[in-house]
Each structure stands twice: as C-alpha cells, then as structure tokens.
C-alpha cells in the first residue's frame, strides 16, 4: 500500500511535503521527488550553534589573555623602572663612588677575616687600643690603606646578645652617614671560628686634629687650614643631624677628628659602642648637646689651648674673650702669626651662641653652617678632601664580595 499526498489539479508548483514509503515494520523518510534541498534536523542546528559559540568563546578568551599578558608586562616594566630609580645614586654625590654607594643601599659588605688578616700583616700592625677593642692599620692589595677595629673578645661565650645588638646597630647607623667629611665604614667581618667581630674604615693618613694643634712635632696648621677643618666638621654634623633618625657622635673632640692627605677633616666614630642595658634612640636635645661640644672645639681650634682641664674650665677661660672683656686677638693661638682678626671676632659670636647655657636657645647645626659659611666663604666642595682612594677600595671590596 502506497501513501502520498495528492496534488491540487489547479496548482502548477510541486508540493513541498516530503514523500514517505510505508511498510508494516519501518516508516522511513524518503527523498522528495520535487525538492533538491535536504531536511535539516534540530540536533544539527543545535550542534552548529554550540560550535559557533565555542569558537567565539575561544576567540574572546584568547583576546582577554593577550590583553592581560600585555598589562602584566607594562606593570612589571613600570615596577622595574621605579625600583631602579630608587637605588640609583649619582657617583660621588654624598661621599662614595657609585658601586660602593650601591653596596650601602643594599647593605654594608661582609668581608673575610683571612683577607683582613693579610691586609693587616697578621694583625701585627696595631695602631691603638681601648678596653674593649683594638685598632689595626691595613693595606689592601691595591695599596689603599684601611683602619680595622676589632673586639678584644675571642670567644662567642663572652659575646653577649647585647654586644651583638650593639655591633649590628653600630654598623647600621654608620652605613647611613656617608659623608665626605666622615670616616666611612667600608665593611665588616663576623665569623665564629675563630670568633671575629671587626669593622673596616677609611684610613686618614695625617693623624688627628689634636696632634696638629698640640704636638710640636706635628705639622703646623695655619689659619686657613683651621677654618677649613672647622667648616668640614660643621657640614658633616649638619648632615648627620638631618638624617632620620639623627646620628649623634658621642665622642666628638679633636682626637676623634682625623685629617686626610690634604688636611680635610674626617669625623670618626670607630669605637665599639659601650652602652647601658637599655639602648635609647637619640632625643631631641642631643643635637643641642653636640652644638655645645662643637663650640668648645672651635675654642680649641682658634686658641690652640689643650682642653685637659674639662669643658667648663675651658669655657670659663674663654669667657673673658667671648664677652669682650679682653681683646679677641689675645685669645688666638700664639703660634699663628697670620690671621684675620675680623674672622676671629665673628667666630667668637658663633662660639657664644653654641655654648649658650640655655640649651633650647642654642642654634641648630644648619644655622651654624650658615654663619660659618658667611665667615669662611667655603662651600662644601672646598671643605671636603680633594682626592679620595675609595674607588680603589671599592674595587677591592667588590672582588672580596664576589669571591
């Protein structure tokens, strides 16, 4: 039995209905005799739709991934530029050449005991000592001279936690100073066997200011040289007081000021700290105390008088000159045959302000620098050493660190 839809006798177009063949068990669609187009099933449409959206999702994900990757690269590049900008230091801008300055930004270099021992001739070249440390002079293979400070403690059992804390605080503090008129810290050594705690500093070859003022055998300092030394100390103290937190020199005196080959001042703080159990941060009054000590140092520089009788006695001795009771020229070191009296009078005014008994009324070091600069006409560039061997030391230290 065959079944097919009838054609309308009045229609010229073939019917669009499909033709089916029928049997008792199977009913299957048959190709249309009147239409060339196959029938599209719903499942095929769904598959095509899903395939289209899958391709679109892949494209979108690829685009988003590419954009994210580009954004990540841009952020990484900006971070690198900012990080590089933070650590780049212009060579010689604050006292040290570029590579050594970079070492201070990232941390003070750690040196080997064996190399320091060779430089100091098996630690036979002792140049001084204190109850808790010894001082050695050393020479690097490049010919640069260094000063080495070593604790006298030879066993870790005798090295307390407080000692270790003070040692590390000393290193951290000194590494921040970095001024051309300061005896800069070049590195340190800490080893357990044999027990070693050392600090390595610049070496100033012309001895101390005390020697040149009071020891007859030392080379005489003329008026201009003394003003240059005073100016260099003032610039350095001002720099230290402006650090955060301020760095305070506890032992500022003519014996702690070393002179370079061209007689520029180098403030030193090369001792191991001896502190109480409680380590306190500098108070706001301590810079004012430093100002007072600097005033006494100016009296010593101008007069050549040895301050062995104590600060108050030195101040009392100078008071008659500072107050105008006696001529200022009589206060000047008798070994000075040439000096500018008007400079000496102006210096006395600065000294009076420094040793003002009312602590709060003493000027800050920045004000003192301004006053002294008007007297001496010396810019920072004139007060600092004209030449420095640090770039040689830099090469030596970098070689040591690399090894």
Give me the number of helical elements. Answer: 12
Please state roughly what percent of the residues sit in beta strands, choosing from under 5%, 5-15%, 15-25%, 25-35%, 35-45% or over 45%. 5-15%
| H/E series | EEHHHEEEHEEHHEEHHHHHH
Largest sheet: 5 strands, antiparallel
Indicate the overall shape: globular
- How much helix, percentage-wise, in residues? 40-55%
**How does the helix and strand content classify structurally?**
alpha+beta
Radius of gyration: 41 Å
Count of separate structural domains:
1
Low-pLDDT residue intervals, each spanning 5 or more residues: 1-37, 83-106
CATH fold naming = Transferase(Phosphotransferase), domain 1
- What is the C-level CATH assignment? Mainly Alpha
Number of strands: 9
Care to describe what's here?
This protein is 44% helix and 12% strand. It has helices at 42-87, 98-106, 113-119, 161-177, 209-214, 223-241, 286-303, 311-322, 341-354, 365-376, 380-383, 390-402; strands spanning 19-22, 27-30, 126-130, 133-139, 145-151, 185-192, 195-202, 257-259, 265-267. The relative contact order is 0.10. Helix 7 (286-303) packs antiparallel against helix 9 (341-354). It starts with 18 loop residues before the first strand and ends with a helix. It has one domain: Transferase(Phosphotransferase), domain 1, CATH 1.10.510. The model is unreliable at 1-37 and 83-106 (pLDDT under 50). It contains 12 helices and 9 strands. It is of the alpha+beta class and 403 residues long.
């Amino acid at each position: 039995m065959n079944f097919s839809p009838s054609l309308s006798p009045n229609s010229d177009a073939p019917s669009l209905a499909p033709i089916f063949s029928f049997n008792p068990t199977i009913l299957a669609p048959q190709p249309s005799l009147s239409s060339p187009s196959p029938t599209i099933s719903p499942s095929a449409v769904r598959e095509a739709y899903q395939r289209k959206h899958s391709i679109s999702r892949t494209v979108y994900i690829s685009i988003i991934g590419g954009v994210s990757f580009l954004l990540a690269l841009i952020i990484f590049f900006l971070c690198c530029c900012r990080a590089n900008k933070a650590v780049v230091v212009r060579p010689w801008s604050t006292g040290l050449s570029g590579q050594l300055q970079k070492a201070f930004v990232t941390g003070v270099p750690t040196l080997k005991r064996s190399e320091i021992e060779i430089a100091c001739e098996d630690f036979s070249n002792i140049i001084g000592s204190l109850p808790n440390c010894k001082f050695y002079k050393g020479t690097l293979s490049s010919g640069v001279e260094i000063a080495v400070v070593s604790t006298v403690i030879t066993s870790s059992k005798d090295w307390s936690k407080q000692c270790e804390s003070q040692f590390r605080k000393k290193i951290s503090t000194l590494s921040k100073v970095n001024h051309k008129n300061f005896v800069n810290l070049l590195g340190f050594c800490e080893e357990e066997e044999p027990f070693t705690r050392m600090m390595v500093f610049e070496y100033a070859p012309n001895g101390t200011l005390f020697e040149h003022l009071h020891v007859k055998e030392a080379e005489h300092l003329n008026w201009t040289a003394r003003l240059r030394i005073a100016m260099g100390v003032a610039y350095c103290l001002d720099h230290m007081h402006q650090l955060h937190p301020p760095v305070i020199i506890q032992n500022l005196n003519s014996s702690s000021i070393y002179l370079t080959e061209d007689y520029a001042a180098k403030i030193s703080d090369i001792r191991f700290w001896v502190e109480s159990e409680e380590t306190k941060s500098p108070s706001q009054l301590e810079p004012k105390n430093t100002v007072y000590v600097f005033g006494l140092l100016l009296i010593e520089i101008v007069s050549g008088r040895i301050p062995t009788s104590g600060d108050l006695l030195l101040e009392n001795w100078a008071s008659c000159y500072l107050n105008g009771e006696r001529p200022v020229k009589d206060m000047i070191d008798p070994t000075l045959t040439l000096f500018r009296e008007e400079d000496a009078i102006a210096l006395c005014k600065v000294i009076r302000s420094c040793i003002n008994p009312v602590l709060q009324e003493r000027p800050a070091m920045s004000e003192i620098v301004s006053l002294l600069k008007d007297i001496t006409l010396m810019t920072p560039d004139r007060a600092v050493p004209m030449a420095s061997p640090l770039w040689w030391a830099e090469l030596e230290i970098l070689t040591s660190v690399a090894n």
